[in-house]
# Entry
Amino acid sequence: MRLIHEQDFLELIMANEPDFYVRQIAVANIIDEKLLEKVAKNDVDYHVRIDAVRRIKNNDVLYEIAINQDEDYYICKEAVMAISSPEILHKIVTEAFDKDIKSVAIGKITDSTMLYNIASTAQDFYVRSDAIKHIKDIGVLEKIAKTDEDYYVRAVATQQIEDEQILFAIALNDKDYYVRKEAVLKINDDKNLIEVIQNDEDHHVRKTALEKIKDINLIKEIALDESDRYLSRFAQKILEEREENVKIPQIKDEINTMDIESDRGEHSFDNGEETSR
# Structure
């Protein structure tokens, strides 16, 4: 009687068994890398191939599967997920045709130098943006946010930054309104927001800065300034909305107070007996 763990017997099953479920069971017992590679690349059934890919340890074989344009996306993805070599992951980012497969590879890279290399040299701006999302070094992010030629890449880098002064500098100086707006969205200092409003030429950026201001008196000043009618009307709208938000809880508190006083007015208790007032 042949054992299921005998590799030559498993190879016979993979070559001759028509039932894909039986072949899946066989794959779960294969340890021979060459046989797993053969199954992963040639079996007619998707489920059998993907099970074989998950068992492969050879990074070079996984690389070949990952960049195969004719293979199913999810099998390519599983191949990338199984790769342990940063160098091969970087190679996939450089050579793969599918940008989603490139994105999966970038997501597995943890080396900051390698991520910066991708973020600064990849031709595809989507690939550069993907790499930026995994960078933690504030100095690297600032450099990209201030120097990359593509506005979208600069915006993505800006989104990763928390430093108020770096964001403020970007909000004042970037040539593209979208990048400036992304910087403004992360600024919390009212003084900096007011300076953006006073200096930016784009009404989208000024409007975004105005929405972020917390000091109601500053908003009132802008509402009264007729030199920028668009911003003045928007400031008035903000004031109306905020005042309404204040009024609603106040009204609820007044109603609750009235209900309590009404209850107290209807009944009093004297020596444990209820008497009407």
Q: What stands out?
A: Residues 37 and 61 are 7 Å apart (CA to CA).
